[in-house]
Amino acid sequence: MATTISRDKVFFAFSPTNQPVAHMKLGDIVTLETHDCFEGQIQTKNDLVTNLDWNHVNPATGPVYIEGTKPGDVLRVELIDIEVGAQASMVAMPGEGALGGIIKEMETTILKIEGDELVFKDKIRVPKRPMIGVIGVAPFEGSVANGTPGMHGGNMDCTLISQGNRVYFTVGVEGALFGAGDLHAAMGDGEIVVCGAETAGRVRFKPQIVDIPELPTPFVETPEVVATIFSAPEVGAATQGAIDRMAEFLTKFVKIPLNDAGMLMSLVGQLKFCQVVDPLKTVRFEFPKSVLQQYGFEMPA
Amino acid sequence: MATTISRDKVFFAFSPTNQPVAHMKLGDIVTLETHDCFEGQIQTKNDLVTNLDWNHVNPATGPVYIEGTKPGDVLRVELIDIEVGAQASMVAMPGEGALGGIIKEMETTILKIEGDELVFKDKIRVPKRPMIGVIGVAPFEGSVANGTPGMHGGNMDCTLISQGNRVYFTVGVEGALFGAGDLHAAMGDGEIVVCGAETAGRVRFKPQIVDIPELPTPFVETPEVVATIFSAPEVGAATQGAIDRMAEFLTKFVKIPLNDAGMLMSLVGQLKFCQVVDPLKTVRFEFPKSVLQQYGFEMPA
Lengths: 301, 301
What we know:
Chain A is mostly beta strands. Chain A is built from 3 helices and 23 strands. In chain A, a hairpin with a 3-residue loop joins strand 10 and strand 11 (124-127).
């Protein structure tokens, strides 16, 4: 039974046909060592994206075969700890991201990570807020490149996927074939230039099967909120998907009448961007657990 | 010089040809009494939207002629205090809003406002967070119905437009012809069923002209962030507009090089929804003032 999985064990697409690099049991705690999204190819400001080997981008560590999981199970992954490295990189790229039309010069910059802060261009200090960009399970069928988000998870770039929170996936194949990578030492909602503070790191996680069948996954739980996540080619469709799935959760699982669910979503629900720069755009809808509790509903312990 | 403007003095479209109902000076503090978005037509759960007089929806109190303002001036409106009434209403409407395709029954519900909480359906308690739905100045030309947001402000439904914050507009006509209404005792980002907790109330505000010419307005300042706001027929275009205008602000006003501005927007900027249900959709981009300060930039005092 592995307790740490090396960052040399990577895959580049979530697929039912991937061979597992390790096995683990439900309830065990395992650490994934992860590469940054460039698989370590960018170490200095002289390492430009133009020189990248694009066959080695967005590695996820794994896949891990989680014993006792089968298609249709709802897998909850508790993120016990996320550690990031001593430095992170960011890039600006003409033609890429939400400002690609006006950015003219390719650039790489290296951020130092000092305690709870990142240092940008040796002078601007911002808070460290580690999160996971790519996380998921093999889909039921087909192969999804790690750079793309979807129903299986993948490159959701959701800032809620951070230490102490729980991410829910629907298992697609026996063993789930779970993996994660693409850590960010910090990232803002939107991911405007297609990167956060890209860094290598370590993710300590605990998987469980939870008895909440047909939960609309991907789904996230924090101490304060639950959230549905949806990805689609256009922001508008991603928005509608995240809204529809929260309405489904509130009506089918929490048993709130539809009109009340809609009005409460309008009153205290928060529609939020994850990212608007990947091959599919990702939107989430957050709803406060304090209201679920007033309806007598708790997520599984 | 008026110090309180009655809620009987309303208009339903921002327009250069509106006749002012009051005059005030820059730096003076004035209170607008506001109707709710239904102009008080909904008082009980039996008052359904189907029976509304739609010629009396989205009233804004005003317009107020602010002496000393001329086209092109950047007008800063400081929101000193926002009070809401003792009750609020919400409605569910088939065919309207982001869940209009599945909502089948027209409904009105009345929320009690008790201290710092709203009470929904006599049992669910949520925090009171007053904000202004409709606020703006007359556009340079043309008339914009109060239900529609735009470059002049209007129905932006932005949750940052709340007590203690500052909203910036570009003056379109002499006197600005400022007005506000459509208060919400609480609303979540997105405004899923096209309403927050709709309530009458009072807004105490202080207008100033600030020397920051060609600021991309509408623009909001809170103690923590500055934000650009952009509205467009589709969410995707609203998103791009809010992003482009923050890039413009950071490069032209704060003098951050474009690549750095883009990377910092990706690192610590927050792309957020205002609403996705009005005739135009509204998105904002928030950026932390702590980073502006590290570049030696402060908004005008």
